[in-house]
Design goal:
about 70% helix
Length: about 150
């Protein structure tokens, strides 16, 4: 009898806990949240990026404010529609953003360019000259056999 009351009490506690937790977990409507971030956040981000020259899309100083605004927008919408943030929807959303706008950018946030010839030439010429000089020195020393132990 006492065991049945204890298990009944345990079941009631589990149900009460579930009643408190489940509404907040299931309160997020993923489809609605995705539509909202696309309609509100993505639309503004597209407009802002459209006003920025394409050559500056990979310039972090020029895009950081827009990107932070987009991130903040997704967070604020998540709060309003009772969704956790970050979540899988936000992850997919930002992957889409990066595929559309930042796919040509280097990891450092700058486009990679060849260095100017004034920088590149010494890095090529010095090793070539040192190799030729060392080869000439070895050949010259091999012809002079006197004084070698």
């Amino acid at each position: 009898m006492a065991l049945e009351k204890a298990s009944l009490l345990g079941a009631v506690l589990v149900l009460l806990l579930a009643a408190q937790v489940l509404p907040s977990v299931s309160g997020c409507n993923g489809g609605f949240y995705e539509r909202m971030i696309n309609d509100l956040c993505l639309a503004k981000f597209k407009f802002d990026m459209g006003g920025l020259d394409r050559g500056l899309w990979c310039s972090w100083p020029d895009t950081t404010e827009l990107y932070e605004g987009l991130t903040n927008c997704t967070y604020q919408v998540a709060l309003r529609v009772d969704c956790f943030w970050p979540n899988q929807i936000v992850d997919r959303f930002f992957m889409q953003i990066h595929r559309l706008y930042f796919h040509d950018c280097a990891l450092t946030g700058r486009l990679l360019h060849d260095p100017p010839i004034s920088i590149l030439a010494p890095f090529i010429a010095v090793p070539v000259l040192v190799t030729l000089l060392m080869t000439a020195l070895v050949v010259w020393r091999s012809k002079r056999t006197e004084g070698v132990l």
